[in-house]
Structures are given as C-alpha cells and as structure tokens.
Write a structure and sequence with these properties.
transmembrane, two-stranded antiparallel ribbon, 4 strands, single chain, Growth Hormone, Chain: A, mainly alpha, MFS
Length: 460
C-alpha cells in the first residue's frame, strides 16, 4: 500500500539520496522559494536602514535602536525549529504561504506605528519572516537528491541577499517621499517601505501557491515528533549550531549594524553607508551557491577551515582601534613630556575591503555548515536544520546589543569586531579539536607517534 500523508492522500517518496536525477517540479520549488525567502529576508532586516530615520523621529538612543533590530531577529530565530519540522510534516508549500501572508500583515502595520513600544512589538512580529529559512532548507532538501543538495541549498540560501534590498531602495524612497501621502492613507518617508513590502509579499504568496507542485514532498508526514527530535541529543548538532552563529548570526547582526557604523565612524551619508553595507551583504549571500558547490566537491569540513581562517584574519585587523601609544619621556634623557608612537588608523576603503572579504568567507561558510546536515541526518533535515538555524539566528539577536554594550564599555567602535574574533576563534578551535579526536579514533596507532614513523609509514 502506498504511503499517505496526514490527509490520507498518497505522497511521493522522498528523493533518493543515491539518485542524480532532479525530479519534476524541484526547480520551480527552488526558484519560487528563493524569491519568497529573499523578500521575507528583506522585510525581516528592514530596520537596518529604517532604524536611522526612526531614531531621529522618535529620539532613540543607540541601545534602544539596537533592540529594535534585535527583537525582529529574535522572532526570526525562535520558530525555526518548529518551521523546519512543519515543512517536513505538512510540506513547504503550506508553510511558506502562511509565512508570506503573516509577514505582509505585520509589515503593513509597522507603517502605522506611533510609539517606540508599538514599534518594538511590530518589529518582533515581522520577525516571523526569518523562520522561512529552515522551512526552505527542509523543503528543498526533500526535492533534491544528495549530489545536488549542496548547490541547491546554496542557491536558496543566497536569498540572504534580501538584506541588501532595503539598503538600495530605502534611502532614495525615504528622501524623495518624505512628507507626502499616497493613495490617500499611506505616508511617505520610512513608513512607505513596509507598505511596499506588504504588497510584494502578498503577490509572491499567490505565485508560490499556484505555481509549485500541489503534490508536495513531506518526508516527515506520519512520523512521530519524538522520532524527528532524537538527533538533537547529539553534540554534533550543537557544534554545527555554533558554526552557524559565527557565519550567519554574525552576518545578520552586521547587516543591521554596519549602516550605523559607517555613518557614525566614517561620517558618510545614509545612502553611502547603505551602499557600502551592500558590499558586505552581496558576497555574504551570493557566494552561498559557490560554498555549496565547493562543499559538494571538496568536503564541507575543508571549506570550513578556510572560512574560519579568513574570518580570523579580517576580524583581527578590523578590531584594532584607531589611535597611538603614548610614551612618557624621562627628564634624564631629554626634556620632560610625552611622545605619540605607533600611530594606527584604518581608512574607509581599507575597512570596506576587509568587510567585503569577511562577507565572502561568511557566504561560503554558511553553505558549508548546511551541507553537513543532509549528509549526517538525511531524514531529519527539518528538525536538525531547524535547530541549527534557530541557534544561528539567536546569535544574530544577541550580537547587536552586545556590539552596543561593548562599544559603550570600552569607548572603542572596533570592539564590534573583537567580539566576532573571539566567537570565530572559539568555533575554529572546537572544530579542530573534534577533527583531531576523530582522526585519533580512526587511526589509534598513530595517536602518539609525533616523531618516529610507524612501520606502515616507513614504506609509504
């Protein structure tokens, strides 16, 4: 008797991991889910640009502004595990449509907010959009065979580029429409942006519902929920989550934080800051398919080594504060006083180039992390991917306030990158220790042979 879904209808079998053929409908799922995810990601992180005119209108402090972005990120993290499981059980088509319509409603309501408290509430609500990621990972994993999953998930994940949409359209629309009223009830300025997103989200919801296959793939349908959650007990899942905090949580946090960083520290306009931030967002998003391709061919762990190496180098340079060392001069050798030595400063363009390289490494690393999941957990992508995505996005929630507090405590804006350096270092050390332990377990006869080769080695 053929397997059935929860409604008693026949359901297709999950994609055969050994098969190299892409089933009919898979590319439509990938294309439309990527478009939907891109738009929802744009709505999710809209406060990265809207936050500055909102700060001026409501008289917010930097810490208050950081929490406005943080609560949106928080809600985009909390439901990632349930969203991934729901996509496995009920199909990504249903989950995506619900998320699109809910995000459209909350996005429109943001345009009506009249107080900081209401903005916080609605920013949290619109954060539901961020949960589309794990739903899309589970959905596309169900439709694509193993040897195509790295690239397919990389293409879908490139929807992170939605973070740059507001960076491009926001400053121009805010400036040119400020003070106006449209359609008799829509205010111009920053309030126009969420209304535009609301309309686009509804349009994409209709397209996705009508153009993706009605006979969806639901690898988790009929399986006990407890069975889907069993893999979450493994330390490996939590280690992948830590990696994802470094490559995705930090990406989300910087996407929201960089416009303010450029404006405050390099004295550029909001539009220039938005464009410079886009030079970080684009590689951190569009290189995700490249990271998936490399992971398919070279192995995800090797790609992660390179990712962490580049992140460590760039964040180490970026965390160095501008200034100089003050040395007190002794009267015994010369006239008393002080001397400034070892002056250091980083200009706008060297800073932007380093941030660009940081974005490149994050884009490739994000795909490498998720390549691990269908390899180790082919039938629990929804639950494992959901937990990894949830904890990664929670990193994006905690990091912006941490940036603000560490900057306030130290008086150094570059403390932002010191936080990222420590996070990356911890993940790199954990990964390397795990690899060393794995190699020792597989070849225990080599575990203590540091100097003298074994008999087997002597003949190689």
């Amino acid at each position: 008797m053929p397997a059935t879904d929860l409604a008693g209808q026949p359901r297709p079998a999950p994609a055969d991991p050994a098969s190299s053929a892409v089933p009919p409908g898979a590319r439509r799922v990938l294309a439309l889910s990527t478009v939907a995810f891109t738009l929802m990601f744009a709505a999710w992180l809209m406060f990265g640009v809207l936050g500055l005119p909102i700060r001026d209108e409501f008289g917010l402090t930097d810490v208050e502004l950081s929490w406005l972005s943080a609560v949106a990120i928080l809600n985009g993290a909390l439901w990632r595990l349930p969203a991934g499981i729901a996509a496995d059980r009920f199909g990504g088509r249903v989950v995506f449509t619900v998320l699109l319509l809910a995000t459209a409603l909350f996005s429109y309501l943001i345009s009506l907010a009249g107080s900081y408290g209401m903005l916080l509430l609605l920013a949290f609500a619109v954060g539901f959009a961020g949960n589309a990621f794990t739903a899309g990972i589970a959905w596309n994993s169900a439709w694509f065979p193993r040897h195509h999953q790295g690239f397919a998930l990389g293409v879908f994940g490139a929807g992170n580029v939605g973070a740059s949409v507001t960076k491009f359209i926001g400053p121009v629309l805010i400036t040119t429409t400020a003070g106006g009223t449209y359609l008799g009830f829509v205010e111009g300025g920053w309030r126009l942006i969420p209304v535009i997103y609301a309309v686009l989200l509804i349009v994409v919801a209709v397209l996705l519902w009508t153009m993706t296959p009605r006979q969806d793939r639901k690898p988790g349908a009929g399986r006990p929920l407890r069975e889907q959650l069993v893999p979450l007990r493994q330390v490996r899942v939590w280690r992948f989550s830590a990696y994802y905090v470094a490559v995705f949580g930090a990406y989300v946090a910087l996407s929201a934080w960089l416009p303010k960083y450029y404006v405050d520290n390099f004295d550029v306009s909001l539009s220039t800051a938005a464009l410079l931030t886009a030079t970080f967002i684009f590689p951190a998003s569009l290189l995700r398919p490249v990271g998936g391709w490399f992971s398919d061919r070279l192995g995800a762990r090797r790609v992660m080594y390179w990712t962490f190496a580049i992140m460590l180098v760039t964040t180490f340079i970026l965390m160095m504060p501008n200034g100089h060392v003050v040395v007190e001069v002794s009267e015994k050798h010369t006239s008393s006083g002080t001397a400034d030595v070892l002056p250091y400063t980083i200009g706008l363009w060297p800073f932007a180039i380093l941030v660009f390289l940081l974005g490149c490494s994050m884009g490739i690393g994000k795909a490498a992390v998720y390549k691990h999941i269908p390899e180790y957990f082919p039938t629990e992508v929804g639950s494992v991917g959901g937990l990894v995505g949830m904890l990664g996005a929670l990193g994006g929630f905690f990091l912006p306030p941490l940036f603000a507090y560490t900057t306030a405590w130290t008086g150094l804006p570059s403390a932002t990158f010191f936080v990222l350096f420590l996070l990356t270092l911890a993940c790199a050390v954990w990964m390397h220790l795990t690899v060393v332990q794995m190699l020792h377990e597989q070849s225990p006869e080599l575990a203590d042979h540091f100097e003298q080769p074994t008999t087997r080695e002597a003949h190689v």
